[in-house]
Amino acid sequence: MGAVSAGVLLLLTLVAPVPAEAVATLEPEGEAIPFCTAVDDPDYYRIPLATTRLVAGTGQTTGEAGLVFPAASPFGIAVTPDGSYDYRVRFDVRRLPARSRGVFVAWVTTPEIDRVRRIGPLDGGRAEGPVEWNKFLVVVTMEPPDSPAAAPVDDQAMEGMDAPGGVAGSTPPWTGPVVLRGMSRSGRMHTMAGHGPFEQERCAKYGFS
Amino acid sequence: MRRGFPARLLTRPAGSLALLSALAVPGGLYAQAHDMHGGHAMHGATMEGGWIMPPMDPTMPMLPGLETAVPPVSAWLPGEGHDPSHFPEARPSTPVDVPDGGVLELEVTTVRKRIAGREYLMYGYNGQIPGPLIRAPRGGTIQVRVTNRIPMETTIHWHGIRLDQEYDGVPGMPHPPIAPGESFTYHVRVPDTGVFWYHPHVREDIQQDLGLHANLVVHDPEAPAAPVNREEVLVLDDLLVADDGRLIPWGQEAPTHAFMGRFGTVMLVNGATDHRLEVRPGEVVRFYLTNVANARTFNVRFGDAAVKLVGSDQGPMEHQVMVPSVVIGPSERYVVDVHFPEAGEVEISNTIQAIDHFRGLFFPEVTPLATVVVGDGGAAPAGNGVVTGVAQGADDHGAAFRTLSSDADVEADRARLREHFTRAPDHTLVATMRHRNLPNAIVLSMEIDTLYVPPMEWNDAMPEMNWLSTGKQVEWILREEETGREGGEIDWDFRVGDLVKIRVFNDPRSFHPMNHPVHIHGQRFLVVARDGVVQENLVWKDTAIVPTGSTMDLLVEMSNPGEWMVHCHIAEHLHTGMHFHFSVAER
Known about the structure:
The complex is a heterodimer. By secondary structure, chain A is mostly beta strands. Chain A is 6% helix and 26% strand. Chain A has a nine-stranded antiparallel sheet, with helices on one face. In chain B, β30 (524-530) and β31 (533-534) form a beta hairpin. Chain B is mostly beta strands.
């Protein structure tokens, strides 16, 4: 819980407001990607994206990141060799500004932001890629059009990097302001200490503040 | 004498207002100043009614007020009151060929089973755990005369086999269960090749858990030998024992562990904790995996060895594919080829990301299951394959292993059935549950706990709550979405030749959502879509995992007349209501 909060705080402090200027990308309101994950509970595998309002023209921007398991998995569920869930994350962003001075790029990152994967630039408000962490944040940033982060993704498997703005290896770093962010539903799981029947149990005893 | 929950914790106060009042009052129900870890002293102690508390992480607090609570059913253990030395020691499984028209005598008996240096009284088929590996030729009919020598009724369900329904082993459909001391002869028609298994359909949570399970392999005598050097059966299981090694009792009137099923603490492969297989460098081994555990889904890794998935419940994969691990739910089967190019030891393990619900954390958990010793010295030539009976040579199958082939029959099935993949389902089932008379502490904990529920429960993350939940309080439900009918109220009638699309939605909003391995008796099906995505690699199945929050579209080929059961194969879910049956009439 503490780590997650720290991660979100770090995300917000990493960015600064950027004024909208007249440039290129026209992002029409796209239709929602048709999810059939749940008959009547779309919430379970959908992550709502909340605007940071840090970029002019994105105050009404909304969207979601949906999770599906790869169709190629021959099992009832897809996991990595270490047992982590192996999802495909699909960004579907609506009401992006018709004009902006940068390229909107989708990312996923661990709550601690010690690992980041670039999903890629939004195309028609959409982007899709792999994520194999159990708890994670989903992020859309605005990157300068000429930055490597704004380039199309050639090989998503190679898009991991150690930290935003840090050692990037062969992958471009994340530099732009955060436009939208959300948290995987697993982020709601936190210590039960201090709650309900465990209200007398101190959080600090379990490493939480 | 049996004892249930403390009366003050027996029921939830009517309405949330009463609940909030209880919480808000200083010194109220949960404002307790005692050590919430003190109850761990009960671990290993014999509690009231003969109960033994299951192991639990001592750093986790216990549910307040429930430190000494026991399940509100009678504790039951096999062979109580008998001298264990009077029972024979269990033997490992041995293959037995039963030709078309052949008869196999099968005795269900109590045996002594040594596990990790300790002896337990368990049950066996012909004194074996797992029971005899039956090999039968496709298209034949074998007779199995079963004599029940355990002190409870039993049956045998021939899991996955499209046999005549009267021999399917479901009690009362139509034959009554086999009473102690009685016999019954099953006529088992085996029309399909594949790796099937057999087990009781009476209190599976007890009988199957105690050792009544084994494979039945149906082979095609005309089929060419597979390009492998050796065959190996891996029967995956777990057994729940206390810290001091004693068996945790089962519920007599109703199952315990009704929430999640009974996860074991000791992993077993072919009935042993230290299963070892010796092979020679360069060999390709075909493993036949069957999950006979009550509740646990395994993620099986073969070290860093290359693993090729070649088949599942009812035959070959549409496309062979390399996989990093094998996810196998209760009662599923998978067939994989594994290449061992170099000398050394390869550990087969269950590799998962477990959950610590109390701390709200995932954590990696790797549990050894078995060891493959790759060496020139000890490994004897394989001889005849333990599964197919076909002679296995010392040829180099490395090139064949690296070739990923497709199965023409399943590809033809895809082409034949494609139009059904995306059409609307004929029926939709919703998996959910209800509860009554659960202690408040459990209800409150669950409400916090289920802020997030994972797609899969890989481990028993709440051993105390799970243990205390029984079939008296928990009812698992399969509900027909179109009509609202539940369980036995569901009324489905089909005819042979019908292709029925059944959508199963695992509702994540239930009180305790959990993955369900859904099993359909007597028919076979394809999982054609998962969460709205058409599947790229089909295989005929009889059991499929439906993760929490997920939707599975099953295309069932109604090919076998009779009354057939649908149920969750977590034994405790089956025996707490999660089943119904449908009929298939001759056309």
